Amino acid sequence: MKLVIVESPTKAKTIGAFLGKEYKVESSYGHVRDLPKSKLGIDVEDNFLPSYIVPVKAKKLVTALKKEAAKAETVILATDEDREGEAIAWHLSEALKLEDLQVQSTPTGKPPKLKNVERIVFHEITKHAIEEALTHPRKIDLNMVDAQQARRVLDRLVGYKLSPFLWKKVAAGLSAGRVQSVTLRLIVDRENEIRAFKPEEYWTIMGRFEDANNAEKNFEANLVKIGGKALDKFAIKTSADAEKISETLRALPWSITSVKDTESKKSPHPPFTTSTLQQEGAKRLHYSSKKTMLLAQRLYEEGLITYMRTDSVNLSTESTTAAKSWLSANLGERYASEAPRSFKVKSKLAQEAHEAIRPTDPTRTPDQTTGREEAERKVYALIWKRFMASQMPQAIVATRTIEAEGTNGKDIYTFRATGQRIVFDGFLKYWEQKLEEKELPDVHEGDAAKLTEVKPSQHFTEPPPRYSEATLVKTLEENGIGRPSTYAPTISVIQTRNYVIKDAGRFKPTDIGELVSKVLTEHFPAIVDIGFTAQMEDELDDIARGIVSWQSVMQEFYEPFAKLLAEKYAEVSKEEVVPEKTNEICDKCGKPMVVKMSRFGKFLGCSGFPECKNLKKLSVEAGGKPGPKPIGMKCPKCTEGEIVERHVTRGRARGKLFWGCARYPKCDYASWEDPRGESAPKPEKVEEKDTEE
Predict the structure, then answer these.
(1) pLDDT digits (tens, 9 = 90+) for 300-315
(2) Which of 260, 278, 368, 503 is spaced 20 to 30 A from 141 at the CA atom?
(3) Measured at the alpha carbon of residue 69, what is the angle toward residues 68 and 72, in degrees to the nearest 5?
(4) HSE on the CB side for 319, CA within 13 Å?
(5) Is 38 exposed, middle or buried (0-12, 13-18, 19+ CB in 10 A)?
(6) Distance CA 625, CA 609 (A)
(7) 393 in helix, strand or coil?
(8) How far apart are CA 335 and CA 426, in angstroms?
(9) What's the pLDDT tens digit per position in 651-688?
(10) How many Å apart are CA 203 and CA 456, to the nearest integer?
């Protein structure tokens, strides 16, 4: 019997269906070893030696897997092909003592031999891919294991060393993390930009024209030039300027001076990578990165899509051939590219041996997944359409540009109108883009024109928008902060810890989030520096390539970090960090009340603490939390009460946002997901990848 071990029960079930009776497929349910939660678990004096343990919840499973491994002729470690999967395979090997297992000596008296232990990887869970992987086993890649181990140790050092500093100097229960703290800083910095922003006024002028001989030939155009000089955004600054120009325009004779017709081609986007899937999942489906990845993981483990943690846009020849065949048969030859389209990834760090995210079977259309949960079907449809669109011809767009000019003998005033229409939709049939069609009339150069309306419009510059899920992921990727597999858990953790909330679908820092970011930026600038974080990711990649040792990278980071941390413990006082005082007097002991901070926000506490432990809620005007907030929606359960936003007031989830019926306890409707959006997916018992301390 050959024992195959994977990390997910769903994956085990799918692979088990492909293999014969000679194989037994078991799941490890993620990592079977980890650093202890109760202590640092890293010997910084002994070359950063980690002390791994088998968690209590995994001990029974490890014992069972040991028994199965002892009976097996061959143990095959078939965990995912990334660093995390490689580390899980290594931990399994260590926990099960696979290298120590020996096959019993034969009756002929031959000496025992080491048990055959193999490592296989594959990009998709299909019968062909699994069988192919079994014919090409390899050893565990210890360089990849070291890279994952370095990330784990690094995040543990930052989390377990820096978080206690925040507890002592700011508030209990806070946490810091190498990637989460930089992500938080991005959101806080954007909020500060918004506050500091000062709007500037500017004006534009629209004109409505019609052919002098045919009123049905009319169009709208914008004033773009005066005296042959192009108008910049702030060329018309005031209402008086706009009205003065408008009066001049109304008195001028006009003619069509230019009509240009051009055709342009629009190319499809590459198939999805982890990052772009999360971005489009947020933009098109309004799903969080975490939700999109959980759904994609289910689709992968059940054999519907290829591996969903990838930064490559490569596609196999088999997949592009299958796509062309399906497109030709179902849409016609015109909708199938003559040759397979390939793409180049922008990131120099992309693992080109991998494939992009695509359907394992391009002929399985979204309509053929009707038996699945709706959210899964939507993610599958997104992946299928993006892949199919990538193999379809360019769209052809016809553009017409019309210019009308008028002159008073001194200056020439120029209006311009641009319209477009789709000549051939091509890939747009499956991948819709914002392409507003606007038809312009058939006019000719030299035709006389009438200006029938002049409409000046006032505008103000707007501050940069808060980050949405999609724009935050894009910014993290562009700056090399973390890796695609870390985005979802990072964004999730800063919400769970109440550092940021979502307001109208965009991230807004809370009071405690801003304070934590301020403290870290002032006292530990390197930890929250974008350049430093990106450099650290580069070094982790160098470890994976075998260029540097992971211990040397840890040493280079830890020595200055530990020195600075010791200095800050001595320099920084809690009073300097949270110095707010009030005029309110404690009604229990008569001492002044002061504003204090917890991970859930501000509150009033007696300055006589710990002798007096009187606490009070802070008013909304003074920065306290508002009460339940209606969202303008009736309860879907009782249909009478209003749905309101609430926060959990006790337990481990304290401070977390949820939605419930205002008639509680008469109606017990409650949801972790905004009921105006999609319901949350059921969690799988699979360890989330690359989480921070």
Answers:
(1) 999 999 999 998 899 9
(2) 278
(3) 90
(4) 26
(5) exposed
(6) 23
(7) coil
(8) 6
(9) 656 667 789 999 898 999 998 888 876 443 333 333 34
(10) 7
Lookup: tokens for 637: 């359960």
Average pLDDT value for residue range 365-390: 94
Which residue from 621, 598, 623, 289 is spatially nearest to 472, judged by alpha carbons? 289
Residue 355: name the closest of 300, 284, 432 by CA.
300
CA-to-CA dists, residue 139 to 33, 328, 545, angstroms: 20, 42, 16
Indicate if the pLDDT at residue 351 is higher than 60: no
Question: How far is Cα 333 from Cα 321, in angstroms, rounded to an integer?
Answer: 13
Confidence of residue 578 (pLDDT cuts 50, 70, 90): low
Question: Residue 103 in contact with residue 115, Cβ under 8 Å?
Answer: yes
Other C-beta atoms closer than 10 Å to the C-beta of 664 total: 15
| pLDDT value of position 624 | 54
Residue 483: pLDDT above 80? yes
Q: DSSP for 598-657, please give it.
A: ETTEEEEEETTTTT---EEPPPTTTTPPP--EEEEEE-TTTSSSEEEEEE--SSTTTT-E
User: What does the DSSP 8-state code read for residue 678?
Assistant: P
| Gyration radius of the chain's alpha carbons | 31
How far is the C-alpha of 171 from the C-alpha of 513, rounded, in Å? 12
The answer on pLDDT for 632 being more than 90 is no
Measured at the alpha carbon of residue 607, what is the angle toward residues 603 and 612, in degrees to the nearest 5?
95
Candidates 185, 231, 283; CA nearest to 481 is: 185
- Averaged pLDDT for residues 359-365: 96
- Evaluate whether 324 touches 316 at the Cβ level (below 8 Å): no
What's the pLDDT at 50?
96
**pLDDT tens per residue across span 90-125:** 999 999 998 755 444 444 455 444 568 999 999 999
23 is catalytic: no
Q: Are the C-beta atoms of 32 and 91 separated by less than 8 Å?
A: yes
Give SS3 for 468.
strand
The Cα–Cα gap between 587 and 506 comes to 40
- Please name the helix (run of DSSP H) or strand (run of DSSP E) that holds residue 537, with its range, or none: helix 530-544
Which whole-number Å values give the CA distances from 668 to 590, 664, 665, 671, in the listed order?
41, 6, 6, 10
590 backbone dihedrals φ, ψ, rounded to 5°:
85, 0
Could you report how far apart the first and last alpha carbons of the chain are, in Å?
39
Contact 379, 225 (CB under 8 A): no
Catalytic residue among 300, 307, 467, 499: 307
Domains and CATH numbers, the chain: 2-140 (3.40.50.140), 150-197+468-575 (1.10.460.10), 201-267+395-460 (2.70.20.10), 274-390 (1.10.290.10), 580-616 (no CATH), 629-671 (no CATH)
